[in-house]
UniProtKB/TrEMBL annotation:
Enzyme class, first EC level, given as a word: lyase
Record field: catalytic activity: (2R,3S)-3-isopropylmalate = (2S)-2-isopropylmalate
EC code: 4.2.1.33
Originating gene: leuC
GO process annotations (BP): L-leucine biosynthetic process
HAMAP family linked: LeuC_type1
Function: Catalyzes the isomerization between 2-isopropylmalate and 3-isopropylmalate, via the formation of 2-isopropylmaleate.
Organism: Blastomonas natatoria
Name recorded for this polypeptide: 3-isopropylmalate dehydratase large subunit
Pathway annotation from the record: Amino-acid biosynthesis; L-leucine biosynthesis; L-leucine from 3-methyl-2-oxobutanoate: step 2/4
Amino acid sequence: MTQARTLYEKIWDAHVVDQRDDGTAIIFIDRHLVHEVTSPQAFEGLRMAGRKVRRPDLTLAVPDHNVPTTARLDADGNRIPIADPESRAQLEALERNAPAFGVPYISATDIRQGIVHVIGPEQGFTLPGCTMVCGDSHTAAHGALGALAFGIGTSEVEHVLATQTLQLKRSKSMEIRVEGDLPAGVSPKDLILHIIGQIGAAGGTGHVVEYRGRVFEQMSIEGRLTIANMSIEAGARAGLIAPDDTTFAYLKGRPMAPKGADWDAAVAYWRTLRTDDGAVFDKSVVIDAADVAPSVTWGTSPEDVVPITGVIPDPESFEDASKRAAARKSLDYMGLTAGTPLAEVLVEHIFIGSCTNSRIEDLRAAADVLKGRRNAPGIKSALVVPGSGLVKRQAEEEGLDRIFIEAGFEWREPGCSACLGMNPDKVPSGERCASTSNRNFVGRQGPGARTHLVSPAMAAAAAVTGRLADVRELV
Ligand SMILES: CC(C)[C@H](C(=O)O)[C@@H](O)C(=O)O
Ligand code: SF4
């Protein structure tokens, strides 16, 4: 009898090109996404060494981090140059490097352009069972479709471009099993924030996590992408959800997905990609879905999570001395006082976007709350940034753009936007933003910016009330 294996072990075993005695292995990489921030030096390295891209057909490049989310073409149809010199240089480098190395490139003015982690699944570039990398920590997102996907550094980007392989050590395996069903009004974002709040920002360190349970089986691909995306915020190397009929239905007919007989063969293989009964995980965590409420972060780490019904925690209540010190610092940065009910915290900015929550379902969830309502007077800016041009177009076809605009939101072009301060979309110092992104680090949305991570519906609730608010009281 063959040994029972986890999903992670199956994908790993299928990609080992060479196994060394010291535990390192050479792994074949099926898919490589490239963006403008982590690729310029990698291409430069190839150029200096006189090397080519080994498998341009398995590589896909798109700019997302630095592109402004305002109009990209002027009235005459000419490209509006990027003002920031560093951003412009990175974008221009990618625009030169992709054609020079024969890498398929989706330009900033292409309708398919968007955040790498949104366009990969959308184009059918991301497939179950494949190994996938990108010079970007949120590559974990693609695990939502059952791909073993993780972020790599720029020198590894160069290595993958040159060889289509990567030297790696096998990670440990971890199961996060969620039992029961989520209560009404609770979204995948609330669940992943809750999970990170429970296991901590280092809870998954050294592990590849597999999310298991009925909740995930019943979840849409959009929701699964939100979950897997934030695996890295729990410290995990990657996050996986076993592919199933929902995955296959999502991928069928996507431009880069297999077609005809290849599709049938692929689906037959993908159906084998499940953790076998009796397979053993190195670590196992069980979460009760009934415990999850709409979640909000209060501090400067994604593990600083409380339910919206809660209060800002007292730093002195933490057992660990370093956690007490970190919480004091966080509250100082965030301008918050222990004991304040979350629902009394006023916000000035709203950001709906990022690779965590910028897909069509996210926009629908926010628009559902905003419909017939207007942003509260205290809201100084509210941005909605679709994850790709295709998401944007679909939202417009559904009339969602009207709902956002009528509520007082700005309807923008796709990109990373205010998820991180690398482009013009920033939150002013000392001001507070309810954000659907994934990181609330110090300065993440701009120097001195204060970030509260929430779901799209909760961001909309914050917009119309001008404070952190329980969306369940609005619908
Ligand atoms: C700029 C990029 C390398 C970075 C990452 O690796 O994740 C960014 O996407 C982020 O979310 O912080
Ligand atoms: S949207 Fe944010 S988290 Fe995602 S890739 Fe861009 S900067 Fe990173």
